[in-house]
Structure formats: structure tokens, C-alpha cells
Write a structure and sequence with these properties.
- The complex is a heterotrimer of chains A (168), B (616) and C (99).
- Chain B is 39% helix and 13% strand.
- Chain B has 616 residues and is an alpha+beta fold.
- In chain B, strand 4 and strand 5 form a beta hairpin.
- Chain C has a single domain, classed as Ubiquitin-like (UB roll) (Roll).
- Chain C has 3 helices and 7 strands.
- Chain C has a 5-stranded mixed β-sheet.
- In chain C, strand 4 and strand 5 form a beta hairpin.
- The chains are: A alpha+beta (168), B alpha+beta (616), C alpha+beta (99).
- Chains in contact: A-B, B-C.
- At the B-C interface, helix 8, helix 9, helix 11 and helix 18 of B face strand 4, strand 5 and strand 7 of C.
Chain lengths: 168, 616, 99
């Protein structure tokens, strides 16, 4: 049964925990390219001065703009929502890269074709999740991510109000 | 070009006057003998800056070096070092910074950049993978370091470019000016920002899209992940949670928190400026340098008051020097002071100590109201401190022009006994470690190659761990400083962040070196290289006139007794200091005047340098 | 009588573990420093001894600084220290350079 919609699993980076260290970029580049070149990473770290740091990668959009954009049908969505790019069909036009609202596709520096996170299918374990030093990155369903936020709000703000006051 | 792993194998040599440069190769012999970073910088300075070269002249070199580990997956290695003859000390000028700059430069395919000459007009240097050259900086001149970074990125149309720049202080050749990169990181000490200013060099920008090749990619990756894991443990907790400001209360309890221009070792408001308080009320975020699993950079934000919204990266040294050392107790004001220094481009340690000296002068009547631009420049007056810093950064007014020269020259100009409490060694202002109640620390500070600083030896550690009696020096302390210096010379050449040293076991540094470069290197060979590097740097100093007389702490350490409870009466005696200094020179294999002998240098493979110095 | 107490202060992580800046302990005779540590741990939790890096040999000077009457107690010397009424003890993190 395809895992889309609320059970779609994506990589989520906790804004509170991310400090912009780029270790996720380093391990991704190593895993995919055996290189320390951070610009080959499939996950992208942004630092917006002075306090915002976040790592972003493919969201497995339900209606992926990158798939729609490709004039050569090089970009397809798999059953789990992740994106597959056919290296042989891709001519590096970068229309898919431009179309992605999250900017998570890139051009491979050597072979100049589009690349995107494939959720470490061949490795069987997500490297960025495994090696983030602050455990800021998790691989979870969108539903769980939302529930986590709701739960934090509930625990933080409402715990006291949830118990009835003693009757005189 | 030589095919190397780890190293890029090449560096840029550039003449600002001609506006031209070339690529030069790094030989295997230089690499394995001097490792990188500090070692390469020592080589550059010794070879190219002869006796008599004025620091602000075009003949002074400005060298930027990374180490073989930069740009690899090894943690905390995005570090670069800058070298020149220091305009503040006249000796080995050197500082290390982190952030993302080094990773980018190495990825561009360069181990370093050695800059000669002077540009006729404001320029910035842009390295774009294998291309490099100058760009006009006339629109950038006058801008702060933060503005410069944004403007360069905008001009180059690339916000991923890394920028290291000077602020207006460096442009104006404020002698204690520094270099800032990636906004929060600095090459702080020895006035290298003003050397850049003297060359009309506003900034260095770099874009690197290449891949650093290493000898054993899998081996290095595995070991790096293991190190990252170790960095989650207790040995790095002190950096991650409270950060270095956790030092404030420990120093306070040991009466070694420099306060009121090093008059005292305790501050009655220590709790208000403690790391514990700061974490609760001011730290907004803790951020990391590129490829660092620790993350120690505590960034403050002022929540209310006249400086509401001020943001600055706060570390222990800045905190003490612009806090207790100036008698200032308000974290809001200290944060503002740090922001001024970071954006205008001035070293917070040198600035704090120089302003503190001026405060003491004012309280003693040595400086009059007219001398200090009408400021009420007493200890504890934070607004006056901030105003004094602004004047210093712009060399404005009598006070600004005086303070911009650093404490040694300022006290030389004013005289009237103020030299006695100008707290520096070799002209470099002392850091946040008491001179009198941490005596092994002081030995390390005063013998340091670049002047008052513990980063070359870490000798304060034995004092604060109770391994030795911190209140009494003896002949054996020299060995502690010697071993610290050799080991730290390697850390500063590989270049690793010192904050990872707690998780490194014996053999780990040479292991990292071999995994990256493929060159065989035992720990013993590595420590020997450390000794060699230290001696080479020392030879530079000797050529420029350094000797025993330059290896002493300032008069306050000897002539005044401490008054804090617990260390009442403590001072350093000349006898005990001379004894310890003799012991240090002996272990080093140097003469009683602190000069490396020919024999010692030959042992280290520095025969030519031995001839150059010509002693024994 | 004031002098029948030992004053114990906490800084850094030890403040978090113990939830306070200082405690006073009434003692009528001498008290070994290891015993004091044990008492603090049983009162505030064994995270205290863990954070000290307390082992067979003493405490880990890389992790913590223990000060008695203004003198740093070297990690190995921990077992030798005997406290008397009026003594002041501080438990803090190790010093960490400064940058």
C-alpha cells in the first residue's frame, strides 16, 4: 500500500535543535559520492543570520512540481513518493531544480545531471538521521511530525489547566 | 603539481602591487616536516620577513594557511591561520579562525594564499576554484565586517561564498584590529586586521566547488564518525551547554578572574556576569562551525533596555575583558561592547585590557577628563567603556588615537608610571587568566611566541587541575610548558579545534594525519614536528630581536601583592620566575638567554636557521 | 555555632544537578571529602558523582574542578582530603580555555 498522504515519511529537521553544523551534508556527500564535497550533498543546510539554521531535503510532494516540470520525463515519483531521476534522459536543463519550491534538487558537479535525495535506498539507513550530532533530523511521517508539535504545545501550555482545582 | 592527498598540494602566491599571482607546489618534505597551518606559517614568515621589515610596509607578508585535514570529513577541521610580522608586538603575528572559510578554501583546491606587497587602492581578493584575482573594494571601504560579508555575497551573486574581512578599524590601521569571517568567527590577536588594512586589502572571498581527496576515505570516515560520537560525551559538555563563560565562577572561586585591570582576582558581581546567568537571560542560540559536532558558539541577544536587539557571539575571554576587567557588571553592555568590536573589527581582549588600563589611569589622575574626551572613564562605567571602544575603533579624538595603539604603546606615550600597570607580554594584551594566582599559566603566557596567550601551551591546565601548586613556581614547570607547546603546535598545524582534544587518545592525531595524507607518521614523529615548528617560529622572533627580556610577565605580576581573600599577599617573585624560566629554556635546549642553539636546531632539521641565528 | 558547618557551593552543571547554589552541612567532627560527595549524591542523585567523573582513583580533572578552602584538589588527591567544620568546598566544571 503506497505510503502517501498522512503516512508519507519525510526527513524533518528540528528548528530548535539545528545549529547549522553541516555534518549532515558531509555524511550525505560521503555516502553518495565518497567525497567530502558539501556541494554534492542531497540535504541542504541554510543559515539565516543570526539565529535560524535548518537542513532541508525532498518533501515527497503529493503533486511533485519537479516531475511535472521535466520536459524529458527524466523525473518520476516512486510509490513511496520519493523522486527518481533517470541520468540518461536528463540533460541538465535544471527546470526541475528551479521548479522545486524548497530548492532541494541540485546539479551534480561532475556529470551535471539533476540529483535529489533518494532516502538512502541503497544503504538502507538514512545517513543524515544517523549522524546528526544533535539528533535534530528525523525520518518520520507528516502525521507524526504534526502530532509531535501538538503534543509539545499541549504539554507546555496546557498541562496545568487540565487538572481540576480542588473543591473547597 | 605534486599529487597529494589531504593537502591540495598547491598554494597561491600573490603580489598586491602588481595585481598578479601564481600557483606554487607544496613538497612532500615540507608537508611531513611542518605539517601545515602553524608549521607552514612559520616557514613563510621566517623565509620572507627579514629583520627590519616594518609590519605596515609592503614587504610584510600576509599568509593564509590551512592544514591537511581542512575540507575533509574529519570533525572540527574547518580552520585556517593567518600570519604576518605583528604590528603590535614586532614578533610572530598569528591567529586561527574557524567557521566555513577554511573548508571552502581547501575545496577550491588551495592549501593557502601568501600575499605580498600593497595595493594602491582598496581591493578584495576572490578565489573562485582555480581562478583568483583582485576586485575593486572602494564601495566596501568603510563598511563593517558584517556589512562587507553581505555586500560581497551580493556582488558575487552567491550567498554560499565565504568571506573574511576587516572592519573600519583594520582600514584605519588600529593596531589591535582583527579579521572576521562567517560573521561570528575571528582571527583575533596580534593586530593582523591592521596589516590587511595597510595593504588596502578589505576582504578575502572564496568559492570552492571541488573535492578534497584523502588517502583512505572509508577509514577517515569511520574514524571521524567515531570521533563525532565521542564528542557527545562528558568531555565536551562544558563547551556545549554553558560554553566557555562557565569559567567565570570557577575563576572567581580560585581568585584568578582578572578584574579592574588585573588589580584583583575576584569580582563582586561575578554572579551577574557568569555563564550560568548568561545562559538563562542572554543566550538565544548555540551555533556551530562547519563540520563540527560539538557546537560551542553561544550567541547572545539583548532582550530589553537601550541596546535591545543587540546580537553578539559571547565567549569567556571577551566576557571577562569587557566585563570584570573593566569593572562592568551588565551583560547587556558587555554584549553591546562585543558587537561593536566584532563589527568594527577589533580584538575584544586587546580592546578590553587597553580600556581597563585607561580606566585605571583616569582613576589615578594620570589621564585627565580632557585626555579621555570628557568621558567619566571609571571602572564600572559601562556607557563610558562603550563610548571609549567606539572612539578606539575609529581612532577618534585624543582617547581614540591613544587606545587604538594598544596598551604597550599607549602607556609608552602617557608614561607617568602607567607602564607599570599596562598588562601585556611582548605588546600583546594579557588574557582572562590571573597573572599572579596561576603561575604555570603565566610562564606559558609570557614565553608564548606571539605574546600573552595560553593557546600555544595550555599551561593553565595544571594550575587549575591541582596537579601543581599554582601559587608557587619551580624549575620543573618548564617541562609542562614545553610539552604543551609541542603538542599544541601540532593541533595548530593539522589544524584541529582545541575543543576536541579531550576526546583524542594518544596516537589519534597521527592516525588522522595518515588517513588523510597517506604519509606514514608516528606520534613520536608528530611531536618532533611540533618541536620543530615551535623552534622555527622562535627563530623568527630571535631574528626580530626577541630574547629572554621578552619572556616576562608585566610589572604588576611582580610588584603588587594580591588582596583577594584566599590569595592575600600573593605575587610572583623574580627569583621563582627566573628559576622557572631557566628550567624552561633548559628543557627547550636553548641558551640562558632563550636562544635556540645551532645544535638543537640541527637536531630538528633546522640547520640553515641555526646558521642564521649563529649561537653555539 | 557557625563553625560547625561546611559550606558547599555549586557552579555550572552541578547547580543544575543539585538545583541550588549552596548548601550547608552541620558536622560535629571530621568528614572525608569522598564521604561528603556520597552524601551529596544520595541527596541529589548519582548524576552528581557521574558528572564529577568519580572513579577508583578520584575525580576526573578534565570534567570538574573541586576546590577546598580556595585550593584546587587534584583529582587523585581526593581521598586524602579530610574536611573540618568551617571548611568551604566548591564543585564546578573544569576550566576551558576561553575562546
Amino acid at each position: 500500500m503506497p505510503k502517501t498522504g498522512r503516512m508519507r515519511r519525510i526527513i524533518i529537521c528540528d528548528l530548535q535543535k539545528c545549529n547549522g553544523c553541516q555534518v549532515c551534508e558531509a555524511v550525505c556527500a560521503y555516502a553518495k559520492e565518497k567525497s567530502p564535497n558539501l556541494k554534492m550533498s542531497r540535504i541542504r543546510v541554510l543559515r539565516v543570520e543570526p539565529f535560524l539554521n535548518i537542513a532541508l531535503t525532498c518533501r515527497k510532494c503529493e503533486k511533485p512540481t519537479c516531475v511535472k516540470a521535466c520536459p524529458r520525463d527524466a523525473v518520476t515519483a516512486l510509490d513511496d513518493g520519493s523522486i527518481s531521476i533517470d541520468k540518461d534522459k536528463c540533460n541538465g536543463c535544471a527546470w526541475c531544480i528551479e521548479s522545486c519550491e524548497f530548492g532541494v534538487l541540485r546539479l551534480h558537479l561532475d556529470n551535471k545531471v539533476a540529483i535529489v535525495c533518494d532516502f538512502c535506498k541503497e544503504l538502507g539507513a538514512l545517513q543524515c538521521v544517523k549522524y546528526c550530532p544533535k539528533e535534530a533530523i528525523s525520518y518520520t511521517t507528516v502525521e507524526q511530525a504534526a502530532r509531535k508539535s501538538s503534543r509539545e504545545v499541549a504539554e507546555h501550555f496546557l498541562a496545568e489547566q487540565s487538572t481540576p482545582t480542588a473543591q473547597p | 603539481m605534486v599529487e597529494t592527498k589531504g593537502y591540495a598540494g598547491k598554494y597561491i602566491v600573490f603580489d598586491l602591487g602588481e595585481g598578479k599571482g601564481r600557483a606554487e607546489a607544496i613538497s612532500e618534505s615540507i608537508a611531513t616536516n611542518l605539517i601545515g597551518g602553524y608549521g607552514f606559517g612559520a616557514r613563510t614568515l621566517y623565509d620572507h620577513v627579514k629583520a627590519g621589515v616594518e609590519p605596515y610596509s609592503p614587504e610584510n607578508v600576509l599568509a593564509w594557511w590551512t592544514g591537511p585535514l581542512a575540507g575533509t570529513v574529519a570533525p572540527t577541521t574547518s580552520k585556517y591561520a593567518v600570519f604576518a610580522r605583528s604590528p603590535l608586538t614586532g614578533f610572530f603575528g598569528f591567529g586561527i579562525s574557524s567557521g566555513g572559510f577554511a573548508y571552502e578554501l581547501k575545496s577550491a583546491g588551495w592549501d593557502g594564499i601568501v600575499i605580498f606587497g600593497r595595493s594602491p587602492k582598496p581591493v578584495y581578493f576572490f578565489v573562485d576554484d582555480d581562478a583568483f584575482g583582485l576586485r575593486d573594494a572602494s564601495e566596501l571601504w568603510g563598511k563593517t565586517t558584517w556589512e562587507t560579508e553581505e555586500l560581497v555575497k551580493e556582488e558575487l551573486g552567491d550567498d554560499a561564498v565565504r568571506v573574511a574581512s576587516i572592519g573600519p578599524a583594520g582600514e584605519g590601521m588600529v593596531r589591535i584590529a582583527n579579521i572576521t569571517n562567517d560573521r561570528n568567527r575571528q582571527v583575533g590577536r596580534t593586530g593582523l586586521g591592521s596589516v590587511m588594512g595597510s595593504k588596502m586589502l578589505k576582504a578575502m572571498a572564496v568559492r570552492g566547488t571541488g573535492s578534497v581527496e584523502v588517502a583512505d576515505p572509508d577509514g577517515l570516515f569511520q574514524f571521524s564518525m567515531e570521533l563525532n560520537e565521542r564528542c557527545k560525551g562528558p568531555k565536551t559538555e562544558k563547551y556545549r551547554i554553558y560554553g566557555t563563560p562557565a569559567n567565570v565562577l570557577v575563576h572567581q572561586k580560585l581568585c584568578c578572574l582578572p578584574s579592574y585591570n588585573f588589580q584583583r582576582g575576584t569580582f563582586e558581581y561575578a554572579e551577574e556576569v557568569s555563564g550560568e546567568r548568561m545562559l538563562r537571560t542572554h543566550v538565544k542560540k548555540v551555533i556551530a562551525c562547519t563540520n563540527c559536532p560539538i557546537a560551542c558558539d553561544h550567541v547572545n541577544e539583548v532582550k530589553d533596555g537601550p541596546y535591545r536587539g543587540t546580537v553578539a557571539s559571547m565567549d569567556y575571554e571577551s566576557l571577562d575583558m569587557l566585563g570584570p576587567c573593566c569593572g562592568v557588571r551588565e551583560l547587556d553592555m558587555i554584549t553591546k561592547a562585543v558587537q561593536i568590536c566584532d563589527t568594527m573589527g577589533v580584538d575584544t581582549i586587546s580592546a578590553g585590557v587597553t580600556v581597563a588600563w585607561a580606566m585605571e589611569c583616569f582613576e589615578r589622575g594620570i589621564l585627565t577628563s580632557e585626555d579621555v574626551n570628557g568621558l567619566d572613564l571609571r571602572f564600572g562605567n559601562a556607557e563610558a567603556m562603550i563610548r571609549a571602544l567606539e572612539l578606539l575603533c575609529r581612532k577618534e579624538g585624543r582617547l581614540g588615537r591613544l587606545l587604538a595603539e594598544g596598551v604597550k604603546r599607549a602607556s609608552g606615550v602617557i608614561g607617568k608610571g602607567s607602564e607599570k600597570f599596562a598588562v601585556h607580554n611582548k605588546g600583546l594584551e594579557w588574557g582572562a587568566y590571573s597573572m599572579r594566582s596561576l603561575k604555570t599559566s603565566t610562564l606559558g603566557f609570557a614565553t608564548s611566541i606571539r605574546g600573552a596567550c595560553y593557546l600555544r601551551s595550555g599551561s593553565y591546565q595544571v594550575d587549575v587541575k591541582g596537579t601543581v601548586d599554582r601559587l608557587k613556581l619551580d624549575r620543573s614547570r618548564g617541562k609542562i610548558v614545553y610539552e604543551g607547546e609541542n603538542s599544541y603546535a601540532i593541533i595548530d598545524s593539522l589544524i584541529l579545534c582545541k575543543f576536541i582534544r579531550g576526546v583524542l587518545a594518544a596516537g589519534d592525531m597521527s592516525k588522522l594525519y595518515t588517513l588523510a595524507t597517506g604519509f606514514e607518521m608516528t606520534e613520536k614523529q608528530l611531536m618532533l614536528a611540533g618541536e620543530r615548528i615551535h623552534n622555527l617560529a622562535k627563530c623568527f622572533n630571535v631574528i626580530h630581536g626577541a630574547s629572554r627580556k621578552d619572556d616576562y610577565p608585566p610589572p604588576r605580576a611582580f610588584e603588587e601583592e594580591m588582596t583577594d581573600d584566599g590569595v592575600r599577599g600573593v605575587r610572583i617573585t623574580r627569583e621563582e620566575y627566573d628559576e622557572a624560566l631557566d628550567g624552561y629554556y633548559e628543557v627547550r635546549g636553548w641558551t640562558a638567554e632563550g636562544i635556540p642553539t645551532k645544535g638543537k636546531l640541527a637536531e630538528l632539521g633546522l640547520v640553515k636557521e641555526g646558521e642564521g641565528i649563529g649561537i653555539g | 555555632m557557625a563553625d560547625s558547618r561546611i559550606e558547599v557551593e555549586f557552579t555550572g552543571p552541578f547547580r543544575d544537578i543539585c538545583g541550588c547554589r549552596r548548601i550547608g552541612l552541620d558536622i560535629d567532627k571530621e568528614l572525608g571529602l569522598p564521604t561528603l560527595i556520597g552524601e551529596i549524591a544520595s541527596k541529589f542523585g548519582f548524576e552528581f558523582t557521574e558528572r564529577l567523573g568519580l572513579g577508583e582513583e578520584g575525580y576526573d580533572g578534565e570534567l570538574a574542578t573541586v576546590i577546598v578552602n580556595g585550593k584546587v584538589v587534584g583529582g587523585q588527591k581526593l581521598r586524602e582530603i579530610v574536611l573540618k567544620p568551617g571548611d568551604r568546598v566548591v564543585f564546578g566544571p573544569s576550566l576551558v580555555g576561553g575562546g
